[in-house]
Automatic annotation (TrEMBL):
Keyword presence, Nucleotide-binding: yes
UniProt cross-references to PROSITE patterns, sorted A to Z: ABC_TRANSPORTER_2 (PS50893)
Taxonomic lineage of the native organism: Bacteria, Pseudomonadati, Pseudomonadota, Gammaproteobacteria, Alteromonadales
Ranges of residues in domain ABC transporter: 4-231
Keyword annotations: ATP-binding, Nucleotide-binding, Transport
GO molecular function ontology, one term from the record: ATP binding
Organism: Parashewanella spongiae
Superkingdom of origin: Bacteria
Protein name, UniProt field: ABC transporter ATP-binding protein
Entry keyword Glycoprotein: no
InterPro entries (UniProt xref): AAA+_ATPase, ABC_transporter-like_ATP-bd, ABC_Transporter_VariousFunc, P-loop_NTPase
Transmembrane segments: none
Length: 300
């Protein structure tokens, strides 16, 4: 079963092309990231996947169904960017209401509300009204809502936007814990966060799919190192690194940052060789990271 298949998916708003012939297929597995600048078409894509919008052209299948099909109820869940909780109902009442919409009895729905609140570590808030929660806690409740009925696929549109670091971290760990039980497609502007959570990245720009990158292959091969130096010490460093054993390519990606591509079989201990070279040349580094950062992958 494919999770999502889009073929030449196109969406026009009047004369504005929000999505232009987007084609991709994604399979079940680790969370998938959807990245792109403001106005790239991410929310439009989410809305098409949920069946809130109809394509102008092309086709989309989600869990092998047409978006909006009844059979997707309980199998597909989405957290819209601006999701709101009902301020007049307790957290438990609104979660159990959504569980009843999926066909659960009143008693079952209350248990389901407790279960999903446990998953986001907010069982204590069951009797509270949303106004008693912080913005970050409210977002976690909204994420709990997507877990109702244990769907096969959950779409999260900017789940950590505007959230304080502690709650954002909590949300990342919730996604990480739940990825064994469900599949996630996550849109975010936080590339570091996506890099930690996702194996595959879809990059949209101006309504077109520009790149589909597998991060897993990169880290499994371990054939990149991202090196950040003290800014004053970068002159001629590219040439020095290029002379080292096993180096395939060195890119001076930003003022103080170098992306080093190397052959692991030829030089399995490149970090140690780099430390030796820094010591010989009296150079100071800020950080050495295994892998190529998503930011550099997308924008190099
Ligand atoms: N209802 C609409 N009517 C007209 N144009 C729209 C409508 N919704 C979105 N657009 C336009 O379509 C393009 C894609 O918008 P969309 O909201 O999908 O982008 P996005 O990637 O989600 O942006 P952001 O990161 O800012 O949320 C933008 O140029 C936007 O102005």
């Amino acid at each position: 079963m494919s999770l999502i298949t889009c073929n030449d998916l196109t969406k026009l708003y009047g004369s504005k092309t929000a999505l232009n012939k987007v084609s991709f297929e994604i399979q079940p597995g680790a969370p998938i990231a959807l990245v792109g600048p403001n106005g790239a078409g991410k929310t439009t894509l989410f809305n098409l996947l949920c069946g809130f919008l109809k394509p102008s052209n092309g086709s989309v299948r989600i869990l092998d169904q047409r978006p909006g099909e009844r059979s997707l109820i309980g199998n597909l869940a989405a957290l819209p960017q601006d999701s709101l909780l009902d301020p007049s109902l307790s957290i438990s009442a609104q979660l159990s209401f959504f569980a009843q919409l999926q066909g659960l009895s009143k008693a079952e729905s209350l248990k389901e509300a407790d279960r999903v609140l446990d998953l986001v570590d907010l069982r204590d808030t069951a009797k509270e009204k949303p106004t008693a929660l912080s913005h970050g806690m409210g977002k976690r409740v909204a994420i709990a809502q997507t877990f109702i009925g244990s769907p096969k696929l959950i779409l999260l549109d900017e789940p950590t936007a505007g959230i304080d670091p502690a709650n954002a971290k909590k949300i990342r760990s919730i996604v990480s814990e739940q990825q064994e039980n469900t599949n996630f497609l996550i849109s975010s502007h936080n590339l570091d966060e996506l890099e930690k959570l996702c194996d595959q990245v879809l990059y949209l720009e101006n309504g077109s799919l520009q790149q589909s990158i597998s991060l897993k292959n990169q880290t499994e091969k371990n054939d990149f190192i991202t090196l950040t130096m003290e800014q004053t010490q970068t002159a001629n460093l590219v040439n020095v690194i290029k002379l080292m054993n096993g180096i395939k390519h060195v890119e001076h990606s930003q003022q103080d940052t170098f992306i080093i591509e190397y052959c692991v079989n030829e030089e399995p201990n490149l970090e140690i060789r780099l430390f030796e070279m820094f010591s010989q040349n009296k150079l100071q580094y800020k950080s050495i990271l295994r892998g190529k950062r998503l930011e550099d992958t997308l924008f190099s």
